[in-house]
Amino acid sequence: MSVGEIIGELFYNNLPRSGGYAKTRGYILHNRLGFTNDQVFCRYIEDSNYYVRLCGAPDRISLEDKLYVDELKTTSNRDITFSKTVGEYQVQFYMFLTGIHNGRVFVYQTLEKKLYSFEVKYNEDLVKQTLEDYLKLYEAKQKFRKNHHG
Questions:
Q1: Is 57 helix (H, G, I), strand (E, B) or coil?
Q2: pTM higher than 0.85 for the full model?
Q3: What is 3-145's CATH topology?
Q4: DSSP letter at 68?
Q5: Which of 34, 37, 52, 80 is deepest in the core (most CB within 10 A)?
Q6: Residues in a beta bridge with 114
Q7: 49-96 per-position pLDDT tens digit
Q8: What b/e sequence results for 57-94 when a residue is b if at least 16 CB atoms lie within 10 Å of its CB, and e otherwise?
Q9: Strand, helix or coil at 119?
Q10: Residue 101 backbone dihedrals phi, psi, to 5 degrees
Q11: What is the DSSP letter of 79?
């Protein structure tokens, strides 16, 4: 299971998907702004109800005054609230996976060509609750498919 799957299902499932151009543009901006990490981190999580292997690759790990896990979101929306919220959840998972408890979300607003940054306080309870919510949704969808698709 990946952080991308969880974030995609919980935040983007009912939204129109960006086309290839938007994805390519996002990739170019990530590279231009230095958000180029490709190292994948994994952690096994066991609870009374589940046992999963969770993996993900944060956009960047940086050392400034302290070590940070950074996530970059790009948007053409003038209101960056949604992108910021998605990034906050994503960086929570990456802090959980890496053990680095300092996080930042960067939102690049493409129309203004402006980069916003926000520090994120680590909240392990939020990660565990979000994972639990995702697993309940996943199980419900699997049950539906089994019952209605043979």
A1: coil
A2: yes
A3: Lambda Exonuclease; Chain A (3.90.320)
A4: E
A5: 80
A6: 109
A7: 778 899 999 999 999 999 999 999 999 889 999 999 999 999 999 999
A8: ebbbebeeeeebbbbbbbbeeeebeebbebbbbbbbbb
A9: strand
A10: -100, 25
A11: -
